Description:
19 strands, 12% helix, 44% strand, disordered C terminus, globular, ten-stranded antiparallel sheet, mainly beta, seven-stranded antiparallel sheet
Amino acid sequence: xxxxxxxxxxxxIMAMPAIADRTVTPMQGTMGDPFNNGLVHGFGWNAAxxxxxxxxxxxxxDNILTINGGAATAGxxxxxxxxxxxxxxxxxxxxxxxxxDDLHGISAGTGQDAVIQTIYYGYSNAVATIxxxxxxxxxxxxxxxxxxxxxxxxxxxxxSVVVPSLPTGAAMMVTVTGLNIGVGASxxxxxxxxxxxxxxxxxxxxxxxxxxxxxxxxxxxxxxxxDGSGVYNLWLPIPYFYFVDTGYVASNIQIALGGFHVPAxxxxxxxxxxxxxTLRRRxxx
Length: 285
C-alpha cells in the first residue's frame, strides 16, 4: 500500500510544472451589460438555451451550469431567495490580483483522496492570444464559511499547469487534459494569466447550484506585491455581483475536475484478501 501511495504522489509531483494539452470550444450565447465596482469588472453572459447539453463534466468536482455542459443548475441565492442565479465573466481590476476559489467535496464527497486528470473552465479574452496558469494547492485545514474579510492560508502547491496559446473569444470553454494531480477532499485553485495583452482574461463565474462538491460563497484572490516582496491571499464576503440586464450573479468560479478516486487502505486490504481467496480457489481446483 505504501508503495502504491508513493507512486501516486510521485506522479503528482512530476506533473507540477507541466504544459497541459487543451481543447477550446466557443460557447454559444450573447454578451450582457458591463460591470465595474472598482474592485471587480467584467460583463454578464446570456448562454444559449441548450448550448451545453448538461449531464456533467467532472466526477470529482463540478459547479459548471448545465447550460454550459456541467452538472450544476442555476438556483436561488439567499438571503434574498427570489433572486435567480445567472452567470458572468469577471476579473479583478488590479493587475497584481489573481482569481481563486476554495473547492470542497472533491472526490464526490467520499472523503477519499483523488487524482485529477482533467480540468474544465471558461474564459473570455478579446485582447490577444494568451497563456493561463492553473495552480492547485492543498487545503490542510478545510475552510469554514467566513463572515468577514479573512486571510487565507493555503497548503503546499500540488501542481502548476501551463495552458498555452489560448485564442481570443467572447466566451470560450477549455478542457485541459493529460494531468495527474493528487488531491485530498479540499483544495485551493488559482487562475492566472501571462502574455500579450495582460491583463485581459475574464473568468467564468456564477457557479452555484446542485453540482458535485461545494464552495463557500464569496471571492478569493492572491495579491502579489509589485516589488516581489511577498504575496497575501484574501477571502472577501461578496457572494454575488449585480448586472442591470443579467441580474444577480454568484461570484464563485465555474469549474469542473475529472479523474479517479484513490482507494482507502481498508479497501485495498479487502481487495488483497479477495485476491488471495480467489488464488486459493484456483489452486484447489
